[in-house]
Amino acid sequence: MLIYILRRIASAVSVVIVTLVASFGLFFVAPTDPAGTICGQRCTPERYADISASLNLDEPVVQQVGDYLKGLAVGRTYHSGGAAIDCDAPCLGYSYTLGQPVTKLIGQALPITVSIVLGGAVVYLIIGILAGVVAARRRGTYLDRLMVGTSLGINAVPYFVVALLVSLYATFLPHSAYHPLLENPLTWAGGLLAAWLTLGLANAASYTRYSRASMIETLGEDYIRTARAKGISERRVVYRHGLRAAITPIATIFGVDLAIQLTGAIFTEAMFGLPGLGVLTLRAFNQYDLPVLMAGVLVGSVVLVVMNLLVDILYTILDPRVRLG
Amino acid sequence: MEPMVTEPQVLRAGEPDDGRVQSATSPAPVRTVSKSPTRIALARLRRDRIAMICAAICAVYVLIAIFAPLLAGLEGQNASDLHQNLIDEFGFPTIGSTGEHWFGVEPRLGRDLFARWVYGARPSLIVAVAVTTITTIIGVVVGLVAGFSGGWVDRVLSWLIDLVLSLPYLLFAIASSAVLVAIFGGAGGAGSEDVAQIRFVSLICVLSFFGWASLARLVRGQVLSLREREFVAAAKVLGIPTRQVLFKELLPNLVAPIVVSVSLALPGYVVAEAGLTVLGAGLIEPTPSWGLTISAATTYYRADPLYLWLPVLGITILVLALSLLGDAVRDAFDPRTRR
């Protein structure tokens, strides 16, 4: 077990390192002019020299990657317009277009993305699993077919279209905006409600099908028949004995989905005007803000790798039948 | 396809039932037509009414895309003429749908919406088909090689597959298309037509880069189990070159998973193209694209609902038809998944 975990951690770290080196190569070594693109259109020669010197662009590539890694570990100093800017560890670079350290920008964006995704997850887990259980209990009835059909239909409509139409037409929902949770939980929830419902209902469709399939399989097991034979209530059989076993495969799917959504909530963020990680990356794309772009990719891949690792480890704990050497 | 028969029940199911009886009783050679699993699956698909309706809808889209100039010509307009005389001083069109402009004109620029719409079918379909073709070829080749050769080749390729699958797809797609555009289009003086062309190609490259890995993993797994089978061992003993074993012996057995993956990938890439374009990270003007029209129309959704809803319906119906067709293809090739 321990060896398995260690091996998974090693492979996760290798993925992050390769992502770092590859994106560094892509953004700073490709035959482009990073200092020029960072500097923007109204670029003065002094500013250009500042940026070049700060990024050590005249040094060998290995040295540049080393500097970036050192910045992550202990921080580094950037120069802008004669002033020195300290970038504390973990330093992901300095955004010259916004005039702020990238770590701070990411730190502002991440809570927004996490709020959207976790709130949406609550919605789709509750609705999806309940609907799936109901459909599984009434398997083959009109209600079951209606639910499965609806869920297939919802899934076939592109998500960005759903998000766009909700954001345009669902004006009865509170206006979308992000207010920090700690300031006022009510305004926080109100501002995110539309995003939660959209993300939640669109995903609830697939969770209905997952949990229906898993539940049908579980309800066919022998121990469910035994539980029924003991004479306990149907409710107890379904929810205590059935759902508890049926939920394990759903938990795995949920873990992977959560990781994908944390790095891909960009449509929800963009349509509802919530400045999360995806919108930050999108803005960086439009302004060729290379340090922010690179940090977005890097943070995204760390989130994804860590989540996948957690899912794999949790799975061996949740399901004792999975034993890995 | 040569029947690579591995399942005894599909061996010879040709001429009706009496075929086999006859061949058992009479010594005269009886011509039996063997049905491959693919033909059986296609026959099953043909009986699926929803699948046939969806296939017809997709065919209509393909025809619209091919004959876009003809359709626009039928209306007497094209996708790039600006009709400023039909725009009032606030940028709103003064006409609705008329005999001359069937879907009306765009606010602000005044381009004909029907022409933009029919031409808009093109990038969606071209991107989806191109990316699906590229990813399928790369995925199949990588999966075959990794699964069949084993050893360090397999380890390197598997690691590569895992790497691509664990990258944050959307963030990376946006970031790398920024870099691709900077590399190829950064050399100033490029006209807007050229930049649009570069964005088109770079979108295909980026989507292809992320698309091949899941199919490669699937094919690799299948090959791992197939390569232990007798017919592969027999081919090896006969001294057939590896390339021929891969493409003549193994590939025909992988038709079902590949067809299923293709049919599910197509709608995915239509959505990816439109989605990235709506975000501003995909295609750009002056390419006529539904995604671009949608993102421009969100500001006018109350004043001019038709402007927004035509491309939205265009995308949604296409994706709906493609996905339902994909589900039907999966059911036809693998009856166990039938709902």
TrEMBL record, chain A:
Compartment(s) where it occurs, according to its Swiss-Prot or TrEMBL record: Cell membrane
Pfam families: BPD_transp_1, BPD_transp_1_N
Family matches, as Gene3D superfamilies: MetI-like
InterPro entries: BPD_transp_1_N (IPR045621), MetI-like (IPR000515), MetI-like_sf (IPR035906)
Alphabetical list of CDD domains matching this protein: TM_PBP2 (cd06261)
Gene Ontology BP terms: transmembrane transport
Topology within the bilayer: Multi-pass membrane protein
Key words, A-Z: Cell membrane, Membrane, Transmembrane, Transmembrane helix, Transport
Domain ABC transmembrane type-1: 110-315
GO cellular component terms attached to this protein's record: plasma membrane
The keyword Ion transport belongs to this UniProt entry's keyword annotation: no
Record keyword Membrane present: yes
Transmembrane segments: 12-30, 109-134, 146-166, 186-205, 245-272, 292-318
Family stated for the protein in its record: Belongs to the binding-protein-dependent transport system permease family.
This protein's name: ABC transporter permease
Organism encoding this protein: Micromonospora arborensis
